[in-house]
Amino acid sequence: MRSTRDCSTQISGEHYISAAILAEFSELRTSGLPFFGDGETRVGRNALRSNILCTRHNSALSPLDQEGHRALVAIRDGLNHVWRRSLSRKTLHSIISGEALELWAIKTLMGLLKADVARTDGRSTADAFTVDDALVADVLTAGRLPPGCGLYVGQDSDLLHDTIGFAPITHQAGGRVSGLRVSFLGIVLDFLFDPQVAQALALRDDPHFQPSIIDLDGGVRRARIILTRGQNGREPNVLTLRLRRATVSEADAEGLAQRFARREFEQVRPAGTSGRQR
Fold it and tell me: Which of 13, 98, 18, 12 is nearest to 268 (CA)?
């Protein structure tokens, strides 16, 4: 945020993955972080901190972390609802701000880059690729993304991936960082903020781009996540993700259902490699 020329003199130590998200995990095991070496490492939340923003901008942008947390909770509770044993066909509703969620993703991406924990093909993403700092500052200051940029929800997938993950999206030919991929328990969310890439992909008319509603369909019942946003010139669109259970034993499936019910999440993947619950 230096390009704003409005920074305070003191730098704040902060979590590059939102503290509210990390707090959902009773135990953290990470992989893919360069300073922890290969394999999985058990860490405390304070190990995932770095000096990223000045105190003024950290205070101003900290409310965005709550929107990332709301998205995780909406997905977690939605999965718990659609998979629970019940004859009920009632739909569970959650509401989050689509615009604030997109801004949270950009803040998270910049945190991963500034802390130098993101890797692309084994190299430091921050060293190997450029990022338009002025564009990022303009987006976070104005509170809106360039036309055609924003959230793209991944295709239907098996949803029993009990991790969260973060990985930069890069434009190899242009040598630029173009966005952030976030995986919340198997739901893949791509956040694009590079206008050139967005224009080339022409996502505006794709139903997976900036959905107004995401329906998690478990067959028997649904969980509906409503994403609010201002006028963007598009008709409201509903995206349905038909969830499929991964093939597991009956005992493992029952154990996983119990962990979901207790809201036990024990592993986080901050830098783009996968992990499992205990």
Answer: 18
